[in-house]
Amino acid sequence: MTTLFHAGNRQLQDEFASRGIADRLESFARSEFSADDRAFIESMPYFFLASADAEGRPDCSFKGGMPGFVRVTGPGELAFPDYDGNGMFKSLGNILVNPGVGLLFIAMHGRPRRLRVNGEARVVRDDPLLAQTVGAQLIVRVAVRAIFPNCPRYVPSMELVEPSVYAPRPGTEPPEPAWKEFDAFMDVVPPRRPTFRG
Q1: CATH no. for residue 99?
Q2: What is the mean pLDDT of the chain?
Q3: Which of 101, 58, 54, 53 is nearest to 80 (CA)?
């Protein structure tokens, strides 16, 4: 497996005498999901997606849905849907020109936990999951390079009250967000594309 560290990481590890612990932590990295990884990922109603454009300029996005919206689809692959959004396609547009991504799954409710997944993503327009995923207009598949746990000690304890009313789910048409009716946007909001409804 590719090392987690580059010269910049090593420079600071050496400055702070942390190379030994960094190497030990790297030994926990893997390229295939465990059963526990799968259960955690598929239980999450959100994650954070880091991507970068062709020049390396980063972007970070929140992705949310009902638990199970992210699926582990193979030993070293996961998939998640792209839902109707603001139409900027910052993350998916970045993936089209630079497939390197980082995903952070973080539980801030119940038992704190963090799991990082780094890999190469691709946007799929004709994926079989489109016919099974309520509300998906595209599917993103990520081939894993590294999966590794992350210390949750700074994760705040919060309460998960309820899922977003906008999260696609079978038998329910999500409401349109209010901003689509604002004068500044309503003349340029594209119509929703037909998607699987469950």
Answers
A1: 2.30.110.10
A2: 94
A3: 101
